[in-house]
Every structure is written in structure tokens, then in C-alpha cells.
């Protein structure tokens, strides 16, 4: 008698981790903030020397606001989606930037990949559709990346729908 946790592990047909793109590295961020700080300081000093001393404080405020916006952006970049396809399951796991986890498990035999396509820009949205319900996926990707992801996921779903292949030895 075999226990349930002795089940053989299914092979993974497809696995992808989708993360939001951030175009500015930490080093680039430090360079940008240094340049903005210097420009703001120079501008503030010019106003201070001209006798408009209250402007000096506001010149530092804009740099502080830009710094805060980048910190929010970097925190949000911690979010990701993980999509895994095996012969019997399609699992979508979304982890928010706060660490909140949402997970969906679908049968790949009943899942259809739905696309919302704009004529000029390409794929705008991707959905997994099963039993009348839609699950939005790959929202953090750009149109070209969504196209590539959709092709790979469609191929994986097709392979899962074909079922396991057997090797015949003669």
C-alpha cells in the first residue's frame, strides 16, 4: 500500500517566473539621484544668493519626492508571477510586493489562452479561461514579451493536452 505523498513527481512541461521590468539599476539610481541633488542644490543656491531664500527648501523637496517615488517603484518590483504546467495541472502563483500569495490550480485540458490584441501595439492582455472564468496573467510584461510568453505557454498547453507520449521499442 503506497501513501499519497509517495506519488511520482510529474515532469514539468513549462515553468516561467514573470517579474516587472525596471529600466534603472541601483547604480543608475545613485548616479541619477546624485546629479539631481547637485542640480537642485545649485539652483537653490542661486535663489538663496539672489535673496529668495524660501525657494532653497523647495529645491530639496523635489529631490526628496523623486527619491520616494523610486523607492515605491523598487518595492513594487518585488512582485512576481510563477506559471507552471505539468501534464495534469496548470498552476499560477502570484506574489504581491507585500508578500501576499494567491494561487490557482487549473486542469490544462480545460484551459484556453485568450488574448486582447491591439492592431498597432500587439498583445495588451492575456487571460487563462476555464469553465467561464478568466484569470489575467503576465500583466507586468510588455507586448513583445507577452507574445513570446503566449507562444511558449500555448505550446506547453498543447503538449499537456496531447498527453504523455510513449516510446515503443521493437
What does this structure look like?
It is a single chain. The protein is α+β, with helices and mostly antiparallel strands. The protein folds into two domains: 93 residues, Roll (PH-domain like); 51 residues. The strands form two sheets. It has a four-stranded antiparallel sheet, covered by helices on one side. Strand 3 and strand 4 form a beta hairpin. Helix 1 packs antiparallel against helix 2. The longest helix is centred in the N-terminal third of the chain and has 24 residues. The mean pLDDT is 88.
Helix content: 40-55%
Please state roughly what percent of the residues sit in beta strands, choosing from under 5%, 5-15%, 15-25%, 25-35%, 35-45% or over 45%. Answer: 25-35%
| Span between termini | 33 Å
CATH domain topology of the largest domain: PH-domain like
The strand order across the widest sheet is 1-2-3-4
Mass-distribution shape: elongated
Mean pLDDT: 88
Largest sheet: 4 strands, antiparallel
Count of beta strands: 7
The CATH architecture name of the largest domain reads Roll
CATH class identity of the largest domain: Mainly Beta
Number of helices: 3
Number of domains: 2
Reading the helices and strands in chain order gives EHHEEEEEEH
Could you say which structural class the secondary elements and strand pairing correspond to? alpha+beta
Amino acid at each position: 500500500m503506497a501513501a499519497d505523498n509517495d506519488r511520482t513527481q510529474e515532469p514539468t512541461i513549462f515553468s516561467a517566473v514573470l517579474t516587472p521590468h525596471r529600466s534603472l539599476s541601483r547604480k543608475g539610481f545613485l548616479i541619477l539621484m546624485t546629479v539631481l541633488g547637485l542640480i537642485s542644490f545649485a539652483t537653490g543656491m542661486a535663489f538663496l544668493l539672489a535673496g529668495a531664500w524660501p525657494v532653497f527648501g523647495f529645491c530639496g523637496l523635489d529631490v526628496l519626492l523623486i527619491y520616494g517615488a523610486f523607492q515605491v517603484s523598487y518595492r513594487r518590483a518585488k512582485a512576481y508571477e510563477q506559471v507552471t504546467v505539468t501534464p495534469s495541472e496548470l498552476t499560477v502563483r502570484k506574489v504581491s510586493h507585500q508578500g501576499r500569495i494567491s494561487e490557482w490550480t487549473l486542469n490544462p485540458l480545460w484551459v484556453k489562452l485568450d488574448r486582447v490584441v491591439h492592431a498597432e501595439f500587439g498583445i495588451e492582455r492575456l487571460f487563462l479561461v476555464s469553465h467561464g472564468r478568466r484569470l489575467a496573467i503576465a500583466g507586468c510584461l510588455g507586448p513583445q514579451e507577452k507574445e513570446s510568453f503566449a507562444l511558449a505557454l500555448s505550446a506547453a498547453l498543447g503538449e499537456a493536452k496531447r498527453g504523455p507520449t510513449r516510446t515503443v521499442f521493437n
